[in-house]
Hints:
The protein is mainly α. The protein has helices at 10-22, 27-36, 43-56, 76-91, 97-105, 111-156, 161-190; strands at residues 25-26, 59-64, 67-72. The radius of gyration is 28 Å and the shape is elongated. The two termini are 31 Å apart.
Amino acid sequence: xxxxxxxxxxxxxxxxxxxxxxxxxxxxxxxxxxxxxxxxxxxxxxxxxxxxxxxxxxxxxxxxxxxxxxxxxxxxxxxxxxxxxxxxxxxxxxxxxxxxxxxxxxxxxxxxxxxxxxxxxxxxxxxxxxxxxxxxxxxxxxxxxxxxxxxxxxxxxxxxxxxxxxxxxxxxxxxxxxxxxxxxxxxxxxxxx
Length: 193
């Protein structure tokens, strides 16, 4: 899981949006661009906001001549993921599906947004299926090795029937374990069941 990124206030987000849109800037540069966005703040206010963002790890500063040049160190996507995760934890008990339903039902998603979501879901689903099938293949290989070892032990040693049954039960459990976790998942992902 990605490390948590501290939240930013609305005023701090306005400053970050300037840095995201225009790249590194001095305090005066950020102040001027905020003025064009109908945000008129004093130089000291902008400096305070940039200092807070630096303390939170959202921006970094470099000294160039007499001026400090600030640049964003956190992306919009990182802040968005963190904010949505916090919202899901606070309001939805950690579940993200109510957030998606609210966006869809609230009309906040365009047809293009929904197409992008479908593509993301398809890519995620395909990656997940490949990983799950690889896991199943590994599990089956281990079960096959166990079966071969069990056959050899039962064939060439003198163990009692209870021990033989226990060994074969271990092999059977290993085989069923793989099937239990792969097949239902595959059906749900592809609506085959």
